[in-house]
Structures are given as structure tokens and as C-alpha cells.
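FYI - complex with 2NL, inputs then prediction.
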Amino acid sequence: MSSPVDDLRSRFQGEFATASSDADLKALRDRYLGRKGGAVAALLKEVAGAPADQRPILGREANELKREIETALDEKRAALESSKAPAGAVDVSLPGRRPAIGRTHPLTALRTRIESIFARQGYEILDGPETEDDWHNFEALNMPAEHPARDMQDTLYLKEPWVRGGAALAVRADERPATLLRTHTSAVQIRYMETHDPPVRIIAPGRVYRRDNLDLTHTPMFQQVEGLVVGEGVTMADLKGTLIGFLRELFTPDTPVVFRPSFFPYTEPSADVFIGCQQCKGSGCAMCKRTGFIEVLGSGMVHPAVFEAVGYDPVKITGFAFGVGIERLALLMHGVEDIRLFYENDLRFLEQFPL
Ligand code: 2NL
């Protein structure tokens, strides 16, 4: 005949076998060891009411069971605890997080394409300072102090940039202090001609600055690529061939290219260069203002005054130059309506361009 102690033990063992969490163990402890209403407490009360000759044996067995239950619950709780990962541990079974892979900015991609088209033809790619002096940005480019083009340029001038925090910085006597942010990269080409004899075949890409307010087509900083070819016998035919070839490589081999007379202080003659509208294929649309053509480049034969300024002999030497705005070209190529999008670093915009 089974005793009430054995009955309770087997009941506990059945329930204990399926307990698998802290919460299960807590519920078991309450149910069996609770001071009031616990099964063991009820058993001990039952023992107290048992006949006197059975009481000691039953009492000992009941207390043994109580210890058994305590030990079993403690051990399982410890086992659960040690199988838990420590706080902050790495779960090596989780799939990894995909790293965000960046991509080339559309303006950088376009600039790189332009650079490689000219690099393949033997042009040297040049860098130069973004802060310039009057001489390299204006004077040497046939724009003396009173020249109206200086107004047209709407230049950002710097206040005594060689003085910082009240202390004069050491400036070498042969290095004029910068007084403005360059308005075109022509200054880089002037510096090159000052230090190199012809022949010259260079392009000068880089940031340039104008006193403009932000709108759909203007940013106070934008990027430009200028090109310069100088030597004996360089003609307008070379200018046309070079620019037609360049634009047909950049766009499509059958892109229409036309030249129209223009004016720049640093070239004579000068020409604006147009391509057939990519949008309407020349039939006329809003993008080309119904003309069928879109202006993409400024160009011309280098003015003799520029050669004189850098110490070249304009009787022996001729050359052509051109300038192109990267943003403007990118707007056209990708059908983007607002130049500011290129500088807001919004990934929803940038991720639309190919890797
Ligand atoms: C434009 C106009 C142009 C040049 C840039 C140049 C440079 C030197 C001498 C002569 Cl060192 N010319 N550069 C010439 C004609 C046009 O750019 O509308 N760019 C967006």
C-alpha cells in the first residue's frame, strides 16, 4: 500500500520532468513548498493528525521528501542558469548583417568618365588650389581690374586669409596670399603654362565657386572640367574635332554637335557648343526650349593676351581651350530637375545611379 508521502513524490516527479523554465520551477516551488497551501505543508499537517505510532516514520519521510523537492528544484534552476548565454554574448547562429556598400557619386562618376576620355588621348590631368589670387583667376586671363567680366563672375572674396586669429601666418614672398575662391579652373592652367613650355595638352577638373544663391540650376560651389591644348599650328579645326569626338564618346556616336559664335575674355574667336537634345531627339521640347539643341560647352582659341601673360610668344604659338560644367551635364544625362539633389546626400536619390 502506498503511503501519502510516496503518492506526493510520484506526483511531483511527473510534474518536475516537464518543467523547463524558470517560471515552471517557480510555479512548482509555490505549489509544493509554499508555506501556506503548499502540498508538502499539507502533508506535514496530515502527519500531525496520524496515529502516534506512525507519526515519527511519516514525519521523517515527509521531511526527506521536502529536502528532495528542494534539491531537485535548486539543481534544475542552476542547470537552466548555466545554459543561458551571458549578457551581451554573440549568437553565432544568427545570419550576418549585410554591410551597406557605398557607390560612386554620380558627379564623380561623370567626372571620371570625362577624365578617362582625355587621359586616353594623352592629356595630363591637373589639380590646383581652390583659393586663388587675382592674377591667376582674372588678370592673366585677360580680365584686368576694370574688366566687366569680373563683375559677371560674381566672385567670393576672402578677407586677409593669411591672417588667422590675429596672427599673420608665414607667407613666402614668392607665394601671393590667396584672396578669392577660384571661379573657374582656368587658374590651374595658367599656373601650368607659367611653369611649362609648349606643347600643352591638359585638363583641369575641380570645384569652383560663384556668389550664387541656391535654386534649381545653381549652387555656390560646382564642378568644372577645363581643357587646354597649346602648340605650333593648333587651329579651330583641332578644337572642333576634339570637342565633337569628346561629346560623341560621352553621349552617342551619332550625337549632333553644333558650334555658335560666343564671347569669352580669354578666347578669340569663342564658340558655345550644343548637342542635339537627348530628350526630344531634336524635334523640340521643354528641356531644349523648343530649339532642339542644348548648350554643353564653352570654347575658343586662346586669346593672345593670355599667352603674353604666361610668357608664351603668341606669334609662334596658338591653342584652344574649353570649359564644361559637370553638374549641368549630369542633369541633362540623367534627366534630373534640381541640381541641389546632387549635394543633399539623400540615399534615396543616390541609390538610383548604377554602381
Ligand atoms: C564655359 C566657358 C571656357 C575656357 C573656358 C580657358 C582657359 C585658359 C585660356 C583660355 Cl587657360 N580659355 N578656358 C575657354 C573658353 C570657355 O569655359 O562656359 N564653361 C562652362
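Residues 55-83 form the longest helix (29 residues). DSSP finds twelve helices and eleven strands in the chain.
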